[in-house]
Design a protein that fits this description.
about 200 residues, mainly alpha
């Protein structure tokens, strides 16, 4: 059992670590996304630097990196507490943020985290959808993707609490929200200085 759990977590981390933004930009367009635009190997930078289609593909693939490990974990461990699926999802997000394939400098975890909560349970999926709506409204009003991502991440634990999601889901969502805000530290400074794109 312990070996199976460790294998699941390792595979979740490695799947999350696949650098979709880097691969799509490099293979299709011959550029290193880390040295273009904001330098962040994520969907937003690909969208702005390379185009809407590759940016959308990057987003979808990043979402799947979070969804697939959780889906598999739920099949292996179909228990209502969602402990192991949640841990698998956390490892996937960690892999995305600290990918060993890019010297441990990956994306900001928003899309992959979204995929995690989409796959956990109907309640967490509903919470994720509401958070996406928060993102969309903030983006529409402010035009800042970073601010939309931050507010969506912060709103997710609130929605999970409102829908009475499992305890570990609430706690991990708070941890992930904190990480997402921290990863957007440079964006927050730019927003305050009115230099954010």
């Amino acid at each position: 059992m312990i070996a199976l759990i460790l294998l699941l977590l390792l595979m979740s981390f490695l799947l999350g670590a696949i650098p979709n933004a880097y691969l799509i930009a490099k293979i299709s367009y011959g550029i290193d996304i880390r040295y273009c635009g904001s330098g962040n190997p994520g969907a937003t930078n690909v969208w702005r630097t390379v185009g809407k289609i590759p940016g959308t593909l990057t987003f979808l693939f990043d979402v799947l990196k979070g969804f697939i490990p959780v889906f598999i974990a739920r099949k292996i461990f179909p228990e209502p507490s969602l402990t192991y699926p949640m841990l698998a999802g956390f490892c996937a997000v960690a892999g995305h943020i600290w990918t060993p394939f890019l010297r441990f400098k990956g994306g900001k975890g928003v899309a992959t985290g979204y995929g995690v909560f989409l796959g956990l349970s109907p309640l967490s999926a509903l919470s994720a959808i509401f958070s996406l709506l928060v993102f969309s409204v903030v983006l529409l009003i402010t035009k800042y993707v970073a601010l939309g991502s931050i507010t969506a991440a912060i709103s997710l634990p609130i929605f999970l609490y409102f829908f009475n999601a499992p305890v570990i889901t609430k706690y991990v969502s708070i941890i992930l929200a904190t990480i997402v805000v921290w990863r957007h530290n440079s964006n927050i400074k730019k927003i305050l200085n009115k230099t954010e794109d």
